[in-house]
């Protein structure tokens, strides 16, 4: 059973991004806000493997879904 954390910092690490709090804040501040019609995994900010991971996490209601939904909310603020 996977008992590792599935929080926002761990999600950034899983996506191959710097997962420090400062790096996450910088990433979020540099990204254009997503429109309400753009699905998170369809945003142009992701490479194909990142997009696939995000899509799969939501479609399969995986352990990562809460962190992915949190990221989605942050990118729309």
From TrEMBL:
Gene3D superfamilies: Uncharacterised protein PF10982, DUF2789 (1.10.10.1130). It comes from the Bacteria. Pfam families: DUF2789. This is DUF2789 domain-containing protein.
